[in-house]
């Protein structure tokens, strides 16, 4: 039997991968994933919700774990390690909500209408895991604005 160069390199690559990366052969795709999503009904006056969806890839089924009503249209959703999520309003927004894994609102940050700041729809966790960064706009006089990236303690997003 003759071996061509493609079969030879495939065999070498398989041997290297098997010896250097033994976990690769044992890796499996998770059967389920939890996905954060937000939407509203088809009509302009329909309420908005943030939802935790459970996707079962094997059965091709998508179930709603919980739905949280929101004050207005959301933009950013950030899943948290404990199964909860952070949801922030679309720009120019006045709210940020933290929900637990059961869909109960644990915290709601509301920027006062008189305050000249608005959320811009994004929230991030700093590399240390202890700080949230939110994109915001500070409204200045004569229609000008200044972009802001405030730091907030992760467990007290209102600070």
Low-confidence stretches: 12-28
So, CATH architecture? Beta Barrel
Q: What is the C-level CATH assignment?
A: Mainly Beta
Q: The CATH topology, please? A: Lipocalin
Secondary-structure-based class equals mainly beta
Shape: globular
Radius of gyration, whole Å: 23 Å
Q: pLDDT average, as an integer?
A: 77
Q: What is the number of beta strands?
A: 11
Distance linking N and C termini: 73 Å
Pfam families: DUF1513
Protein name: DUF1513 domain-containing protein
Descriptive report:
The protein is mainly β. It has one domain (28-153): Lipocalin (Beta Barrel). 13% of the residues lie in helices and 47% in strands. Strand 2 (48-56) and strand 3 form a beta hairpin. It is globular. The relative contact order is 0.11.
């Amino acid at each position: 039997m003759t071996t061509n160069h493609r079969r030879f390199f495939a065999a070498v690559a398989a041997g290297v991968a098997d010896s250097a990366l033994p976990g690769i052969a044992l890796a499996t795709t998770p059967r389920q994933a939890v996905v954060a999503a937000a939407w509203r009904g088809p009509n302009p006056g329909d309420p908005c919700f943030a939802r935790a969806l459970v996707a079962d890839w094997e059965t091709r089924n998508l179930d709603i774990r919980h739905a949280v009503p929101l004050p207005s249209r959301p933009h950013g959703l950030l899943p948290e390690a404990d199964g909860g999520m952070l949801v922030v309003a679309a720009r120019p927004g006045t709210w940020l909500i933290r929900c637990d894994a059961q869909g109960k609102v644990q915290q709601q940050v509301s920027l006062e209408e008189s305050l000249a700041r608005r959320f811009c729809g994004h929230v991030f966790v700093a590399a240390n895991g202890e700080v949230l960064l939110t994109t915001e706009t500070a409204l200045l006089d004569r229609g000008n604005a200044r972009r802001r990236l405030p730091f907030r303690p992760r467990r007290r997003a209102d600070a």
